[in-house]
Design goal:
406 residues, alpha/beta, Rossmann fold, 2 domains, 9-stranded mixed sheet, 3-stranded antiparallel sheet, 42% helix
Length: 406
């Protein structure tokens, strides 16, 4: 009933949203003398803030049309290299000499936000790399006839993508899929797969959440799995394409994220109101740009979400050597050919420092000169893969690591 209640509430707000749209148009119209008064500006600002906190945000666009190479603008074409029921593999193609750039697969989190959250990650990698990205699909749009999607399926899909891109590929996993990528590469190594990636970079991910646990880790570990199943799992309602599919709704996860820093989000929206009243368009645009991305969420398949909670966050199966994939034990010590880099943020309140770099100890048979640990000072979780320090300090180190292992 959780999802149905959300849809009913959204529908109930529709008349008020229509009024707010009309009010915003009336009080911001240059033909209305009131739009130039403090009262008119306040009313227009209030209507916009109401609209933004109650609207449903669509999947953002990538908005990547070009990149700079040697100071010259090079067009970018985004194409779907492979389409599956739960994920599209996107290629950010550029008109350069084929084979010149290292091939890089960026694995986006399947954790509520769309892959476009990595827009800054992709932009920074494009000039010197041939970039592919996993673009996960919203589970509420996937018909029930497509079957479930489990943690094993997630790992299988990563292996399939690596096979597709060939043995020279370098793989970067951001946040949640770091554990799946480490498991996938370990399984490939155990099979002596000829397509083992040249390198893998794990960024701010939960390899061993027993280390420096955060509030997110304590929440996941402190409640029984049955609580998650009954409290946050719901069925997609009609008439959506994924009707009756069990999902972890994106709006539930978003409410959890918002609650963690509720005061900051409230202050931000009060700030938007003040910026609009004062006519500070640049600050208002920055707010809109951030929240258009942050508030756009997708549903996750319930099987994948619950198995991830159980395997990664509650049982700590990977670091304890008890994780299995379709009955086969996952052993990162088998990895000997794929170089490993970990990146963590000093102020990360989602994945504490040490949780990702635990992968180095698990890859015990990988030569030390093929391992790189890096902790970025002064950044939180988001800053590990986006923002100025990502562009200026983290990405150049990853690029050098990829070059050293190409």
């Amino acid at each position: 009933m959780l999802y149905h209640s959300f849809e009913i509430a959204h529908a109930a707000l529709a008349p008020l949203k229509k009024l707010s749209h009309a009010g915003q148009w009336i009080y911001s119209s240059p033909y209305n003398p009131l739009s130039y008064t403090p009262f008119g500006k306040s009313m227009a600002a209030a209507c916009e803030v109401f609209d933004r906190v109650t609207k449903r945000y669509d999947k953002p666009q990538w908005d990547i049309c070009e990149t700079l190479i040697d100071g010259k603008s090079v067009p970018i074409s985004i194409t779907t290299r492979l389409s599956t029921p739960f994920c599209d593999l996107l290629h950010f193609g550029k008109k350069t000499t084929p084979g010149k750039s290292p091939r890089v697969l960026i694995i986006a989190p399947l954790s509520g936000h769309y892959a476009t959250l990595l827009r800054g990650t992709v932009r920074a990698m494009l000039p010197d790399h041939d970039v592919f990205v996993t673009d996960w699909l919203d589970a509420r749009e996937i018909p029930l006839s497509q079957g479930p999607f489990t943690l094993d399926d997630h790992i299988d899909m990563l292996i399939d993508f690596i096979h597709l891109l060939g043995p020279d590929v370098h793989v970067i996993a951001v946040c949640q899929p770091t554990a799946s990528l480490l498991a996938a590469v370990a399984l490939m190594a155990a099979d002596d797969d000829p397509d083992q990636p040249r390198s893998m970079t794990l960024m701010g991910g939960p390899i061993d959440t027993r280390i420096n646990p955060t509030e997110v880790n304590r929440h996941a570990e402190g409640k029984p799995l049955a609580w998650f199943e009954h409290a946050v799992i719901s069925r997609v309602p009609l008439p959506l394409p994924g009707a009756m599919r069990r999902v972890y709704p994106g709006f539930v996860q978003l409410s959890g994220f918002m609650t963690m820093n509720l005061d900051r989000h409230m202050e931000s929206h009060i700030g938007l109101y003040n910026h609009l009243v004062e006519g500070d368009g640049d600050s208002a645009d920055q707010h809109r740009k951030f929240y258009d991305e942050y508030l756009a969420v997708m549903d996750l398949p319930a099987e994948f979400y619950l198995q991830t909670i159980e395997t990664i966050f509650k049982e700590h199966a990977l670091p304890q050597g008890r994780m299995t994939h379709r009955g086969v034990t996952v052993d990162p010590a088998q990895i000997k050919k794929t170089a490993l880099m970990t990146v963590e943020g000093e102020k990360d309140d989602i994945c504490g420092v040490g949780q990702t770099s635990a992968a180095h100890d698990l890859c015990s048979d990988l030569a030390d000169d093929r391992k790189v640990r890096y902790v970025q000072k002064g950044v939180g979780h988001y800053g590990v893969f986006n923002g100025r320090r990502w562009r200026d300090e983290i990405q150049p180190r990853i690029a050098a690591f990829i070059a050293d292992n190409s």
